[in-house]
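User: I'm new to structure prediction. If I give you an amino acid sequence, what do you actually give back? Let's try with this one:
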Amino acid sequence: MGRVWEFGGLWNVNAWRREPEIIRLNLCILEQGEKLWLYRVEDAVLMVEVKPTPDASPQSAKTIGQVVLKRLMSAEQVVERLTTAPSVLNLSSETSDG
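Assistant: Good question. You get back a string of structure tokens that encode the predicted 3D arrangement of the chain. For your 98 residues, that looks like this:
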């Protein structure tokens, strides 16, 4: 992750006196061979800058140095997306079985 935006603009660590609360959950959607992870963020966070990882997909390796801005979804949008997703993985249940 890169920069984080809140209602007043870019997240200012000095003004907030802390980093934003952004926690990756053990739940993701498989879409076109890519894992889309679900994150829990505090209400003040509106948008984040996402940097591609080398292992995300073969195409992402061609986009080194590029970023994508992601406006965050509401809880209702997330539930709708999860219920219509072709594949949902809960990795905490996968690891606790074995």
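You can read the tokens as a compact description of the fold. Here is one thing that stands out. The helical segments are 13-16, 75-84, 91-96.
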